[in-house]
Design brief:
It is a single chain. About 0% of the residues lie in helices and about 50% in strands. Strands 4-3-2-30 form a four-stranded antiparallel beta sheet, with no helix packed on it. The protein contains no helices and 30 strands. The protein is mostly beta strands. It has strands at about 25, 35-40, 50-55, 60, 65, 75-80, 80-85, 90-95, 100-110, 115-120, 125-130, 135-140, 145-150, 155-160, 165-170, 175-180, 185-190, 195-200, 205-210, 220-225, 235-240, 245-250, 255-260, 260-265, 270-275, 285-290, 295-300, 310-315, 320-325, 330-335. Strand 14 (about 155-160) and strand 15 form a beta hairpin.
């Protein structure tokens, strides 16, 4: 996800280390049930990222589960019974018990690092991409300790697992293929200008990669459909040069593309893009709950004031409810 703030941001380089932290700050006990945790990105250098939870079992919303959480939330994953909240400008990953935020610790990176996304590759290990360093961190999910790094000579953005290989986009317009067993880089290939998010389209056996294009001279971004074996682009959709793509939310045979100008729907079967009158304004981040057929979309009005999450029932093609959240709700994790 390409992040946007109330002002231009520049993040510095760094590499990884790890330590646990003692419990502290405001923490809350969290009622059990069918829950969706919401990581609010916050604004750069403001240390106002926050974590909320909506309990769908008793229809309650709990705000600010752990204060202070950190600066710039950039990913949230539920792995092996724990929540992993990536906070890139705090150079850490906060590991939180989903039943009580009083039980938490940090995976700390050196000052200036920017951990970006966390990807489980087995029951015991995960990889962490770093946007402004040359290495991918390997994390032991039992001890939550960084055990080694994989040098790829460039910063990375999105990272996914498909067909027994890890794929990552980079700041040098490349797609990387990494062997998750040997933890080595096997292939790197130019993929397009400004590659950002990757989603895995398992039914059709392709990677779907969003590129942002070039700023100067201005070129259009694209949606690329990539064969994961050959890493060749087999089809593409050209986007306009006006709107920013904030995030793409996969949802079965379609994906919702969240743009600065609104929402568009990508048909992953026909490779076409359409609009949907259900969505009347832009959104910044989202999540699709395939079990309940619910689409969660969060706003980012000005990166200063609190925002909302609209919950859409895709089955009935209607807005189900709206909940108040922190600043720029962008990442979601379901715990059932």
């Amino acid at each position: 996800m390409k992040k946007y703030f109330a002002f231009i941001l520049f993040l510095s380089l760094g590499l990884v280390s790890c330590e646990s932290t003692t419990d502290g700050g405001d923490t809350k006990t969290i009622s059990k049930g069918d829950r969706i945790f919401i990581l609010n990105q916050g604004n750069f250098n403001s240390s106002n990222s926050s974590l909320d939870v909506l309990n769908n079992t008793n229809d309650t919303l709990t705000r600010d589960l752990l204060k202070p959480l950190g600066d710039v939330g950039n990913d949230l994953q539920y792995i092996n019974g724990k929540l992993y909240a990536v906070l890139d400008n705090s150079a850490k990953i906060e590991v939180i018990n989903p039943d009580s935020s009083a039980v938490h610790h940090s995976i700390s990176f050196p000052s200036g690092s920017a951990p970006w996304k966390i990807l489980p590759i087995s029951a015991t290990e995960a990889l962490v991409s770093e946007n402004y360093t040359n290495e991918i961190a390997v994390v032991n999910l039992t001890t939550d300790v960084i055990t080694k790094t994989i040098n790829v000579n460039v910063g990375q953005n999105s990272i996914v697992l498909m067909g027994g290989n890890v794929f990552a986009t980079t700041g040098s317009n490349e797609l990387l293929k990494i062997d998750p067993v040997s933890k080595t880089l096997s292939t790197r290939k130019y993929i397009g200008e400004g590659p950002q998010q990757i989603i895995v389209d398992t039914p059709r056996g392709v990677l779907v990669i969003q590129t942002s294009g070039n700023y100067s001279p201005k070129t259009a971004g694209k949606i690329l459909f990539v064969n994961p074996t050959t890493m060749a682009v087999v089809d593409s959709i050209v986007l306009d040069t006006v709107s920013f793509v904030y995030q793409i939310v996969p949802a079965g045979n379609k994906a919702y593309m969240l743009l600065s100008s609104g929402v568009k729907v990508i048909d992953l079967v026909s490779h076409t893009v359409t609009t949907d009158g259900l969505f009347t304004h832009p959104y910044y981040g989202g999540y699709f709950d395939a079990i309940k057929n619910l689409l969660y979309l969060g706003t980012a009005v000005d990166f200063t004031h609190n925002d909302v999450v609209d919950i859409f029932n895709i089955s009935t093609h209607s807005l189900k409810k709206t909940i108040n959240c922190g600043i720029a709700p962008a990442f979601f994790a379901v715990v059932r």
